[in-house]
Amino acid sequence: MHFQWPCPSQQHFNYICAIFNNSLMFTLYRKEISGFFSSLIGYIVIIVFLVANSLFIWVFPGALNIPSSGYASLEPMFTIAPWIFLFLVPAITMRLFADEKKSGTIEVLLTRPLSELQIVIAKYLAGLTLVLFSLIPSLVYFLSVYLLGNPAGNIDTGGTWGSYTGLFFLAGVYVSIGLFASSLTENQIISFITALLISFFFFIGFDAIASLISSGVLNILLTGLGINFHYMSISRGVIDTRDIIYFVSVVAAFILFTKIILESRKW
């Protein structure tokens, strides 16, 4: 059986353009970004991500310490970074809708000429942008390993960029989950814990369940539903469309769930 991916029609293209072709949506996006950095949340997230990674890969002795390993590789950083993001991303997203609900501004936001989907996407992009801001400074680690290698440049560049791509997509899934969790409650702590638990389950929960099954199609299916399988696949330096489709699909699903939660306020 030959499968052919459906080509988007002009109607679909026009619908997507209509979603993004709204100045108020980008105004909301800029408001969220400025909110991150005016309240120190953005700076704290970036600093914590960089410091935590630095301590594990340069200071603390152990398997993750790059100088001790003797290999010019950033693999230790890409091993610990998903766990750091597991806590940092829910901290970023916990206020996105919960704070709006608690202060009552969510009602004002929903009366603006913006669809629920546009509101969700604007807030999602703001959270994703902050994640990108935290990743960019970490390129100094790549430069350090690149220069300190023997000879200089003795590093798997393709694998490194693949790992960065995988980490960005992984964090993107965390942001969509955190956004969904924030839409469920007006309590930021509950939002943080909910996002943490769901993200944790998607990261290694499916792998844990699959490990209880000796073999077979169900084992493969459960493993494929987890983030870690696709993250490790991209980290090898080969961008597989199946991994991209997985990440985009999970993000789209949680954005849709968040949209449904917002729409339920009108019922």
Ranges where pLDDT stays below 50 over 5 or more residues in a row are 1-6
Tally the helices: what do you get?
Answer: 14
Whole-number mean pLDDT: 84
Helix share bin? over 70%
Strand content bin: under 5%
- End-to-end C-alpha gap: 44 Å
Assembly category? single chain
Categorize the overall geometry: globular
Note down, in words, how this protein is organized.
The chain is 76% helix and 0% strand. The protein has helices at residues 10-20, 23-38, 41-59, 66-69, 75-93, 98-103, 105-110, 116-135, 139-148, 157-184, 188-211, 217-225, 227-235, 241-263. The protein is mainly alpha-helical and 267 residues long. It starts with 9 loop residues before the first helix and ends with a helix. It contains 14 helices and no strands.
Outline the secondary-structure elements.
Layout: H1 10-20, H2 23-38, H3 41-59, H4 66-69, H5 75-93, H6 98-103, H7 105-110, H8 116-135, H9 139-148, H10 157-184, H11 188-211, H12 217-225, H13 227-235, H14 241-263
Helix pairs in contact: 2-8, 3-5, 3-8, 5-10, 5-11, 8-10, 8-14, 10-11, 10-13, 10-14, 11-12, 13-14
